[in-house]
Design brief:
The chain has a domain of 41 residues: Helix Hairpins, CATH 1.10.287. The chain is 66% helix and 0% strand. The longest helix has 24 residues. It is elongated, with a radius of gyration of 16 Å. The two termini are 27 Å apart.
Length: 61
C-alpha cells in the first residue's frame, strides 16, 4: 500500500510537471512512484475479484 506521503508526492510532481520541466531526478522519482502506484492498484483489483481480463468469451462475470 502506498503511504499518504507517497501519494502527495505523486500529486506534487504532477503539478510541477504542468508548471515546468522536471529535473532528471524528479522524472526518475515520478516514474518509480507511478510504477509502485500501478502495482498497488492492479493488486487491489485482483484482490477484490474484479473482472478477469483473460476471459474473452464475452460473458459478463
Amino acid at each position: 500500500m502506498l503511504t499518504k506521503q507517497e501519494i502527495d508526492r505523486i500529486n506534487e510532481l504532477g503539478r510541477l510537471a504542468r508548471e515546468r520541466s522536471l529535473t532528471d531526478a524528479e522524472q526518475a522519482e515520478q516514474k518509480q512512484l507511478r510504477e509502485r502506484y500501478l502495482a498497488w492498484f492492479r493488486s487491489s483489483l485482483r484482490g477484490e475479484g474484479g473482472s478477469d481480463a483473460s476471459k474473452t468469451d464475452g460473458e459478463a462475470r
